[in-house]
Write a structure and sequence with these properties.
6 helices; single chain; 6% strand; three-stranded antiparallel beta sheet; mainly alpha; 159 residues; 2 domains; Arc Repressor Mutant, subunit A
Length: 159
C-alpha cells in the first residue's frame, strides 16, 4: 500500500481512537470497522492484526461483536481457508443499529428497575400515615416513569 495512504489511514485511526475514548466507546471495534470500511478488498484476521498491531484474540473477539451488530460480515475468498471480513458501507445503517441496540439495552435495565421498585413497594405494609403517603407519592412518580419508559420504547421502534 502507498506510504501516504498508510499515513492517512493511521491519522484516521488515531482520530477514531480519540473520538471513541471521549464517547466511552470501544476503540478497537471502531478501528476494525474503519480499516474494513476503507479497504477495497476483504481482510483476514491476520491482515487486521498486522495493520493494527494488536493481538489476534482481541481482533477475533471484537470482529465477532461487529458481526453481531451487522457492521461487518464474513465473506468467502477463493483459494483461502482463512476467515475474511468486509464492512457494511452504509454507515448510517450501522450507526442506527448500534444506537438502537444500546438504547434497547438501557431501556431493558430501566424496565427491570421499575419492576423491582413496584415489587418492593407492594411488599411495604405500614400503618403509619406518613409512610403510606410517601409510598403513594413514590407510586405516582414511578407510574410517570413507567409511562415515559413506554413512550421511549415506542420511539425507539421508529429509529
Amino acid at each position: 500500500m502507498n506510504k501516504k495512504l498508510i499515513e492517512m489511514q493511521d491519522a484516521f485511526l488515531y482520530n477514531i481512537n480519540q473520538v471513541c475514548s471521549k464517547l466511552g466507546l470501544n476503540n478497537i471495534m471502531a478501528q476494525l470497522y474503519a480499516i474494513l470500511y476503507l479497504s477495497d478488498k476483504p481482510l483476514s484476521l491476520d491482515d487486521m492484526v498486522e495493520r493494527l498491531k494488536i493481538s489476534k484474540a482481541s481482533v477475533s473477539v471484537n470482529i465477532r461483536a461487529l458481526e453481531r451488530y451487522n457492521a461487518v460480515k464474513k465473506v468467502w475468498v477463493k483459494k483461502s481457508r482463512k476467515d475474511y471480513y468486509e464492512a457494511d458501507i452504509d454507515i448510517a445503517k450501522v450507526v442506527r443499529n448500534r444506537v438502537r441496540s444500546m438504547a434497547q439495552s438501557r431501556l431493558s435495565e430501566i424496565g427491570d428497575m421499575i419492576n423491582t421498585s413496584y415489587e418492593t413497594l407492594n411488599s411495604i405494609s405500614s400503618s403509619d400515615k406518613s409512610e403510606k403517603d410517601d409510598v403513594k407519592i413514590f407510586v405516582q412518580r414511578l407510574n410517570k416513569l413507567k409511562d415515559l419508559h413506554g413512550k421511549a420504547k415506542t420511539v425507539l421502534n421508529f429509529i
